[in-house]
Amino acid sequence: MSDLDRAIAQLRACRPIPEPQVRELCYKARELLIEEGNVVGVDAPVTVRIHTIPALRLALMNGLQICGDIHGQFHDLMELFRVGGDVPETNYLFMGDFVDRGFYSLESFLLLLCLKVRYPDRITLIRGNHESRQITTVYGFYDECLRKYGSANVWRYCCEVFDYLALGALVMGASNTLGTSTSTSTNESGTQLTEEEEIEIEILNSAGDVMSRIPRSMAASSDNHETVNSSPLSETSRGAPARSGPVGTGATSDSLGSVGNPGGAVLCVHGGLSPLVETVDKIRLLDRKQEVPHEGPMCDLLWSDPDEIEGWGLSPRGAGFLFGADIVKLFNHRNNLSLIARAHQLVMEGFKEMFDASIVTVWSAPNYCYRCGNVAAILELTEDGSNGGYIPRANGDVNRTGDLLGPVAAGGQISGPGRRYRVFEAAPQDSRGMPAKKPVADYFL
Amino acid sequence: MSASQIPNLNTLRGPRLRGRGRGGGRGVPTGSSDQHSGDQVVQHTDQDATVSRLSAVELGYISDPFVKLFVAEGAQRRFPIINRGSYVRTSAIDVLVDRFLRTDLSRPKQLISLGAGSDTRYFRLATAYPQTPLLYHELDFSTNTKQKIATIKGSDLLRSLVAQAHDDDSAVQISEDGTALHSKSYHVHPIDLRTLRPQYEGSTPPPSLPGVDPHLPTLLLSECCLIYLPPVSADAVLKYFTEYIFPRTTPLSLILYEPINPSDSFGRVMVSNLAARGIVLQTLKRYSSLALQKERLRVMGFTSGQAAADVDFLWEKWIPEEEKERISQLEMLDELEEWTMLARHYCVAWGWRDGEEADTQSAFNGWKSLDVRRTEALV
Known about the structure:
The structure holds 2 protein chains of 2 kinds.
Chain A (H helix, E strand, L loop, with lengths): L2 H10 L6 H15 L5 E5 L2 E2 L6 H8 L2 E4 L6 H11 L6 E4 L10 H14 L4 E3 L7 H7 L1 H9 L3 H10 L5 E5 L7 E7 L5 E13 L5 E6 H6 L2 H4 L25 H6 L6 E5 L10 H5 L12 H7 L1 E2 L5 E3 L6 E3 L1 H10 L2 E6 L8 E4 L4 E4 L13 E6 L1 E2 L21 H5 L8 E6 L21
Parallel strand pairs in A: 1-6, 2-18, 3-4, 4-5, 8-19, 10-14, 11-13, 14-16
Antiparallel strand pairs in A: 3-17, 6-10, 7-8, 8-9, 12-13, 15-16, 17-19
Helix pairs in contact in A: 1-5, 2-5, 2-8
Chain B lengths: L33 H25 L21 H23 L6 E6 L6 H8 L5 E7 L1 H12 L2 H8 L9 E2 L6 E2 L3 E5 L27 E6 L7 H15 L6 E8 L5 H12 L13 H10 L5 E6 H8 L2 H10 L5 H8 L2 E8 L19 H6 L1
Parallel strand pairs in B: 1-2, 1-6, 2-5, 6-7
Antiparallel strand pairs in B: 3-4, 4-5, 7-9, 8-9
Helix pairs in contact in B: 1-2, 2-9
């Protein structure tokens, strides 16, 4: 067993590794990260489907798991690995905010870093706004290092690594569909749908059971905001067919836009867009090896939020901007993207698609700060080896070419990738024999 | 964020015992019964709140030169979201108290603070409103009053504000056991609130509160206090004042600061997290919304007016823009979603009865122009 494997084993048990080892790890990590561009290219792994051998199928089904904020909730990170599949069998992309707020920022970040060094092609880490000297001194990581090592050295080593983390990732070759399902369902209009459907969105619980499955036709035709954001834990969506639009409105802009252009890339970034960044290539030109600045494109990428506004707005966070649907759609069109995946904002349901599924927020810290009562989610993208790309088709009889959704299609919104959300709750307090230090959340007393 | 906002790392070097080790050396007897240890937990919420307040003071949210005198174990830095909450709570209650005191400024007025603990309001008011004749009472467990009185005795600044116009300490009387204090303007009553009730029990009258003037316009204050009592006791405390101590002719009001909304996911986690610390919010279920708080105030006898607003609303509507700007400069708040959620789970509710006075001369006229529109819409 190599030192690195030993360190991984120790960190998996939520035990910090000695300071000299942290120093060496951080050095190695920097050497690795310095080779990465500001925008890391990531391939959605080929999924091999062997339906007849369930156990094997499970092992191979795992695609790329895209994760949002972790915030030092170590036991929940372990739950995430349990739900998403272990490393190195499963590929992971973490969109930053590994540290602060939770009580195990150190163990969480060092474990991810160890895994990165051990399996560089299996793990992608990009920077969040909390991977910063300034923020970590306010939100807990600095204190935690001081408490656990008696000096700020480890904090310093980690901050040096933060400066080398990529700012974004581009996932290429994600399949447009999660496969097909032949299903009979009754939609709201009472019409029976018996049809083989391309599955665009699938929502799984932590046991891997499908809680809802949304065919492309429905996902595209109904208001995504509501459809996909319906709480996976709510009574209405549990096991019930997904809310859908009126029957027959299946063929929409999506299919038009995706003709000849199946599966645009997925841009992953912690916060969002910047008025100073019109193209992904512009991100590649930034000098990222520094503390997160207080303003400018690098700051915006880590701090901004999508919002129901037009154009750009001031962010109440005091850094970054708010940006509306028009900004996202233009950016995606210009950069040949089908989706932006980002983190940064707590969403009670774990994930939230906005703006006709052109952007999604993924949040991976369940019961955030041991206080918020939210569930978490990770987003799985796969490349389906048996299907060289989604072949868009109109759904039967109604072809809405030229209707009012047409102009959007003409604007070139690319059909989104198949998206599998795995939703999970906070790990039980004393799970897996972890030391049970009861987290104490602050309240006003 | 300017360079001046980069936190001074040295301030973080002290012991960080968040939520633990409170009240060390406060002479709290070891509880033998459940009842006793429950009381101890409630008594310790005072130190938790005081530490939060000190954090907000040290970072410049609130100005309060007195609070540091009441924290034994040194400053602990709270998260920005908690600091902002402490700030809004203080600011909103300050607005209400200020409007009460400024209505007919020279008229004598009385404040009664329930479960006051280490609260510094008396000292702040005595400094800020020297021209208002003020009669101030604090009620708390004797464990807490003893600690407070010891702190006052040990501080020249506090002692001088208690003695006020009198230049000798003899104007301040402290009981032999050190749990009660009486001066011309300031009284500390060691009392278990659960003993307060409006009726006789057999031939035993309800407890008395020496120094309370039953005829002065009076403001009762409960900052996270009554919520720890069983609902029956909490109601009895209020009726003790509205029905027993004060005749119906006396203008009387109440300000509550309390958690609300226990039933959504944040609320459920809040209840269970606090329960894990032994803290039970006993009236939370009964008075779980702004509407129910207002109804409570009416039923308890504050019949002339009732209002309630959650902390999120108070931040948005009561804090002036330039103050918001100043606050946002103090610390970067990267917890917006969480802040909104947390802030919607705390409310300030206030109600009053005018007593004999005509509506136009109400001692609480200053409250009638306050913005509570959104809360009305919510009800």
